[in-house]
Model the fold of this input.
Amino acid sequence: MSASPPRPLPLTAIREDVRAAAAYAVPDATGLIKLDAMENPYPLPPELAQQLGQRLSQVALNRYPPGDPAPLKAKLARRIGLPDGMQLMLGNGSDELIHLLIQACARRDAAVLCPAPSFVMYEVSARLNRCRFVPVALGADFALDREALLAALARERPAVVFIAYPNNPTGNLFDRAAIEAALQAAPGLVVLDEAYLPFAGDTWLPDLARYPNLLVLRTLSKLGLAGARFGYLCGAAALIAELEKVRPPYNVNALTLAAVDLLLDHLAVFERQADAIRAERARLFAALQAMAGVTAYPSAANFILLRVADPAATCAALRARGILVKNVAPMHALLAGCLRVTVGTPEENDAFLCALRASL
Ligand SMILES: *Cc1c(COP(=O)(O)O)cnc(C)c1O
Done:
């Protein structure tokens, strides 16, 4: 009996657009100073890390997480000052919430609109959910182009609009009045993505009561818990109740729920770290501004966008000197020449500045 020839792998079962796409690339940072992903460079203080270990050791990993972690949501709502009548939806990072939100709205020919350049996951999730993706180019100095935005809202009637506040990768806070005009004109949901809230000093949370179509998206990633994967969406209770229907049960794991529950009692630790990062942001920005051959853009986030003559070569030269930053130039025409660098510790920032001088 001869063995039958092996069947070919059924790769064609997978959607053409998925097969044509590239997986989200995360570069190996082993041995490098990691300034590419907007992480908080400071670890937990040792006593708090020990307390966390204790707490996590008590989690019943044989059990599923609670179906609705109501006590944790109530604690979070108190900590952030969630307005009355609003509710929270928890996600495995805000990336998951972006995906679920679009999925809930992705009827045939639905559009997802956002300023461009902005956070890549809006486009990735829109396309995976077969939505039309409508980027609206930013204007000079990366400001919102109010007229273009209002025209696109009227023309495309998007189901969802995403506005990162401050924007990634440009770092700026958009004009409030332009956003309010968009909130008034938008026919569907408008998500204000406040991933960089700890460094921004401004929020739309109190505005939830004024705009029924407003949702505020946040994450603990940039605050210092990127590894825990915890994001939350705030909005009118009835709206959140509908969105909850697309959330996979147990999407936030029990270890993360326990960690967040403990760390919400120690937010001052993270706020002090954010203070240090903001102070370093000012120092790094001043040093970059003073550097010949570099244009630095003001930032309300924990990263700085800078323009150089040859971003690919500069990025490679920095890497050769042990510094990992992100070359964002290929992302959008408006980002020609641009690199994005995360604000690190004072020592990391000094190493970056020194390597950049040598790399230009
Ligand atoms: C980093 C980032 C996120 C992703 O946050 P996670 O909670 O880690 O998934 C969301 N939005 C913007 C604008 C970001 O820059």
